[in-house]
Amino acid sequence: MARTCAILHTGFQVCHNRGQHRENDSYGFYWHTTHLAFTGAQRVRHEPEKTVLYQVVREHLPGFLQSIEADGSRSPLPRFVVRELHAFLECRLLYFGFCRVHCSTCKKDELVAFSCKKRGFCPSCGARRIAETAAHLVDHVLPDVSYRQWVLSLPYRIRFLCAYDPICASGVRRILTRTISRHSPDPTRSS
Fold it and tell me: Pick from 109, 124, 166, 190: most CB atoms within 10 A?
């Protein structure tokens, strides 16, 4: 049985110059009152800085980006890819902003780091978004009937073309829909 603890305040400490931190940065505070249900289980902070993926990206990203820029035979990485990689390095780290939660019942404080909320590269935010979207679709959008899943795999060149050219992506979608429609049984026809 979950017990409800009244939270005195939730403080958001956000650095004014996000991404350019110094030891003497000033922070802005915003407070509001809320309630939170605790299950009694001890919360363990996710520490992405200790994962192998984080360490590899942190160590090799600057050199990788410089080598891509220096290579004149390749086009540079799209800005959204570079933004996603930098956001991944800031995701769930207390240094880049957090929420302080205080329980008036047990008198404990918790620091909850902000997440990047990106869906392309960050495994924890991507998994959370996938789970939330699937739950929403199943609970609120899709009727309770059987479904058939189709997966389309494209060669890399066509994938990249579709990623940057909406007209091409629309054409591939039309071909896929037409092909699936031809080979799917028509539920309105009786055998």
Answer: 124
